[in-house]
Amino acid sequence: MPIIIYAILEASPANESISHIIQTLSVKSGIQFELLTTNELIAIVSTKTGETSAICQEEVLRYAAIIDAIAKQYSILPMRYGSVAASHADVKALLEKNSDSFIKVLKKVQNKEEYSLRLLFSHQHQVDHLNDEDIAPTQSLPEILQGDTENKKYLLNKYRKHILEENRAKYIEHIQSMLVRDLQKITELVEFNKKITHAFIVDAVLLIDRSAKSELLAFVAHLQSIYPEHNVILTGPWAPYNFAQIKLE
Amino acid sequence: MQDDLYDINKEITILDVLDRVLTKGVVITGDIVISVADIDLIYLGLRVLLSSVETMEKMKAVN
Amino acid sequence: MDEDKILFYAGSANEIVEELEKMKPGTQGRINATPENVESGLAKLVLTLIELIRKLIEKQAMRRIDGGSLTDDQIENLGETLMKLENKMDELKKIFNFTDKDLNLNLGPLGDLL
Predict the structure, then answer these.
(1) What is the dihedral of CA C43, C47, C48, C51, to 10 degrees?
(2) pLDDT tens track for A192-204
(3) pLDDT at C3 over 80
């Protein structure tokens, strides 16, 4: 029977109460959770029983909800959905083999939670911005592109877009460095998603100490007040998914 | 109005959850592990088809 | 996950959902070649590479304009070439029924090609 792994945590005195929580969670969810322990680590697992059901959104969300419930109280490394081992022995072997890297990452995320901070151009702002550029005085554009020919008009249009792109990139860079600087008081663990669509200025994940949550909320409200023209969104707290991306053999 | 807001909040949350639990977190690879199916494919499947037994069977066949 | 995970937001939630949706990995960028669609898959790959080169040329051209060393004739020439290149590309896209979105490759952790 396949063993589903949910999360991994340190076998420390602080985590001793985990067995009670797991019992409560088992009763609530109807899933029989078990703890597999080695000298240094604990894995929260369950045995997959019955038919292999089709993987659906609900099942994935259920899995995530279990991790979420545990992460509320404990510092854990969340597993990616689909982390299944063949047997209890395999899970234990996995823990023992990768003990050092687990402990290292667990120390990093200890007492911390993850948040997503996003800053978007509002659609309206984007439209206004583009119009501004369109009616911007032509003097700022290279003299050589001024002219009545189709070719020059085409190039001028391309050039405008190019300037717009450059300005956007500079603006994003400016805001990101400002964020890193201002967040320093709260955390140094900030990562920016580089694959963002045009509406985004920033899509960042932060690892924040549990005790600093109110500071983060205050900072985000402040951020919105400096940039009323943008949309600021904060989601969380999440288990440290973005800071636990280790691949195990 | 209030209900709409609730639904959208829920949708943002679900998007964020799915993104995390399917593309982030600790990953196990290797022989001792039997993965349900290639996660990338599951994610694709979820996004495109949500849930379809037939599709899952196909995915298993591919893997 | 009963509790609310949205701690702060301003603006239109619909906009946010829309943008988040766009960021999720989707089917685009995958070239699944099968005997039936291999021709289309190959065309997609080739056009994607041409599009990449075309965009690089365009960027480089803008840098040259910024440099300010181009003559009037060179500007005319450049404009004409880039315009023709773009038109030709649009034609090809139409023939193979590709959108701009189709002409991209997902490079995994490196992000999208274009």
Answers:
(1) 180
(2) 987 777 788 899 9
(3) no
**Structural domain boundaries, residue B49:** 2-62
* Main-chain dihedrals φ then ψ at residue B38, nearest 5 degrees: -60, 120
Instruction: List, for residues A117-146, the tens digit of each pLDDT value.
Output: 999 887 656 555 555 554 444 447 788 888
Residue C9: strand pairing partners: A233
Cβ-based contacts of A115 with chain C (< 8 Å): 7
Is the pTM of the predicted complex or chain greater than 0.80?
Answer: no
Residues with Cβ within 8 Å of B60's Cβ and at least 6 positions away in sequence, in order, are B37
Of the partner residues A80, A94, A242, the one whose CB lies closest to the CB of residue B22 = A80
Provide the strand spans (E) within C2-114. 6-9
Surface of B (3-62) touching C: CB under 8 A: 5, 8-9, 11-13, 15-19, 23, 40, 43-44, 47-48
Query: Domains of chain C: which residue ranges?
Result: 13-110
Mapped onto helix, strand or coil, the DSSP state of residue C104 is: coil
Q: What is the ipTM of this complex?
A: 0.78
3-state helix, strand and coil shares in percent for chain A, rounded to the nearest 5: 50, 25, 25
Among all residues of chain C, which has the CA nearest to that of B10?
Answer: C4
Q: Which residues of C touch A (CB under 8 A)?
A: 1, 5-12, 15-16, 19, 22-23, 58-59, 61-62, 65-66, 68, 70, 72, 75-80, 82-83, 111-112
Cα(C25)–Cα(B43) distance, integer angstroms:
8
Dihedral Cα A174, A180, A184, A186, nearest 10 deg: 120
CB burial of residue A43 (10 Å; 0-12, 13-18, 19+)? buried
Number of domains in chain B: 1
Please give the DSSP secondary-structure letter assigned to residue A79. B
Mean pLDDT of the region B8-19: 80
d(CA B2, CA B6): 6
A118 to chain C: which residues are within 8 Å by CB? 16
Contacts of A61 in chain C (CB under 8 A): 1
Instruction: Record the tokens describing residue A86, joined without a space.
Output: 């063949």
Q: How far is CA C5 from the centre of its chain?
A: 33
The HSE-up count of residue A101 (CA atoms within 13 Å, CB side) is 14
Q: Are A115 and A235 in contact (CB under 8 A)?
A: yes
